[in-house]
Design brief:
The protein has about 140 residues and is of the alpha+beta class. It has 3 helices and 5 strands. It is about 45% helix and about 25% strand.
Length: about 140
């Protein structure tokens, strides 16, 4: 529910019981969820568009995080960003100094009629995120 405006300042007790926990919850969500997603998107689009300059992983993470102007736990954010890059953007960090990636191509294998194997190779494209596969019949 919304607080009613009465024209008076809130007390220190009200601030510590209501406003401060609300701010802390918002900051936690920003740090734990929004910041890592944004940094991963920043890096993935930079790679896809060939726009990133050669630098370290730490400098690129800090550059992206500067948009939020908050204090954050670098190791925590780095760990989450690294996982998001693999799971969502199909990029694996292979070097941190200087930063370098390898693209992960997915292979989907299935049996048809118990004997014919179909292999579909997928290449992820961030700018066109629908998976397009090339079928190879074996």
């Amino acid at each position: 529910m919304f607080r009613k405006e009465d024209g008076k300042d809130i007390t220190d007790e009200e601030f510590s019981k209501l406003i401060e926990p609300w701010g802390n919850a918002c900051n936690k969500h920003l740090h734990n969820d929004i910041l890592p997603e944004y940094v991963a998107f920043y890096l993935a689009t930079g790679v896809q568009m060939k726009a990133l300059f050669s630098n370290t992983y730490k400098i690129h993470i800090n550059s992206a995080a500067d948009a939020f102007n908050i204090k954050y736990n670098y190791e925590f954010v780095k760990s989450k960003v690294t996982n998001i890059l693999v799971e969502k953007y199909h990029l694996r960090v292979i070097s941190e100094e200087p930063l370098d990636f390898e693209r992960i191509d997915w292979v989907y294998v299935r049996w048809i009629n118990g004997s014919i194997l179909v292999v579909t190779l997928f290449r992820y494209d961030l700018l066109n995120p629908f998976r397009k596969g090339q079928h190879v019949w074996i």
